[in-house]
Design brief:
33% of the residues lie in helices and 19% in strands. The chain is of the alpha/beta class. Strand 11, helix 7 and strand 12 form a beta-alpha-beta unit. The model has no long low-confidence stretch (mean pLDDT 93).
């Protein structure tokens, strides 16, 4: 039912079907609410709260995945190279106890930490905290004295958290769809909101004007059971199953095909809570999945199940510019 509804909506958002009168009417109501929330923040009527450290927000306007988590990981690594000690805060979507504030450990499971925060913690070993109110997660990391800058993964519309740098991530293939707000279109805020962001990063496709290009490069596959590496060329010509429970599963399948792996695609909803039955494909073919899915499947993994990490590639001038803004903010807070 959910998959059918998603397909129906996406035809109207990104395809050839026009949204009807009811969707357009609801979209107009949503637009008024979104603009009012933004106006309250900009005017200072409802200012965001601060944790005493510079905050970089990574987010998007369209619902679904655009590459925020790979970009967050790349930012952690790049800021470290430039002398910073970054930490990451997130809502922790999909975790069981959404009301709690939790400092993520690499030994956590996805039900405790959320799939994306757990992936970030394991890939970067950076301090990560999750909370429905991001300011509470920010305060946990600020109090630890381990970090000097915070990166909020998926926090563009979370105005309760004050921010110093805003990075908008755009899916280069689908961009803003039909340009309408939910539910007539895929947008959480009007397109003009992009003009207020410090950087617009385009994941794949063609960057335009001042937009920053980003490409996601696949790495070697990693066996979930024993951590052994396997080059993707090993799977060329073999019957392989590809699993993706991300915002845009087709991006993962396309990347595998570009690497020479013609896998049978199995798309799941973003943040899908996997069970062993979901991956019972009735044959002995290997299974390749995204890292985000792998953190939820490790407990029941078979010997021929592999995670395929991606690495975000961006120009150095982008990271230099972000670091410069963070240093300026640190000086203002000192």
């Amino acid at each position: 039912m959910k998959a059918a509804l998603t397909h129906w909506l996406e035809r109207r958002w990104y395809g050839d079907a026009a949204p009807g009168f009811v969707l357009r009417g609801l979209s107009a109501v949503f637009a008024r609410i979104a603009r009012a929330r933004r106006a309250d923040f900009v005017s200072g009527r409802k200012p965001g709260e601060r944790a005493g450290l510079p905050v970089i927000v990574v987010g998007n306007l369209a619902v679904g995945g655009a590459g925020k988590t790979p970009l967050t990981i790349a930012l952690v690594e790049a800021l470290r190279e430039r002398g910073f000690s970054p930490g990451v805060i997130s809502r922790g979507y999909g975790r069981d106890d959404v009301a709690s504030v939790h400092r993520v450990a690499v030994s956590d499971d996805a039900q405790m930490a959320g799939d994306e925060p757990l992936l970030i913690a394991r890939r970067t070993n950076a301090p990560v905290a999750v909370a429905a109110r991001r300011i509470e997660a920010a305060r946990v990391l600020a109090a630890s004295k381990e970090v000097d800058v915070l990166i909020a993964d998926d926090g563009l519309q979370h105005y309760a958290l004050a921010r110093d740098v805003e990075i908008l991530v755009v899916d280069g293939r689908r961009r803003f769809g039909n340009g309408r707000l939910l539910p007539a279109g895929p947008l959480r805020e009007p397109i003009e909101r992009a003009n207020a962001c410090d950087f617009i990063v385009v994941n794949g496709g063609q960057a335009q004007g001042d937009e920053v290009p980003m490409q996601l490069a696949l790495s070697q596959a990693i066996a979930l059971r024993d951590g052994e590496f396997a080059p993707l060329v090993q799977f060329a010509g073999e019957k392989v199953h590809a699993v993706a429970g991300i915002g845009d599963p087709e991006r993962f399948f396309t990347a595998l095909r570009a690497a020479g792996v013609k896998a049978i695609p199995h798309a799941f909803a973003d943040h899908h809570a996997f069970t062993a039955a979901d991956l019972d494909f009735r044959d002995a073919g290997p299974v390749l999945m995204t890292e985000k899915d792998a953190v939820k499947c490790a407990a029941f993994a078979q010997p021929n199940w592999y995670a395929v990490p991606v690495r975000a590639q961006l120009p150095d001038f982008f990271f230099d510019a972000v670091a410069r803004l963070v240093r300026e903010r640190q000086g203002a807070l000192a």
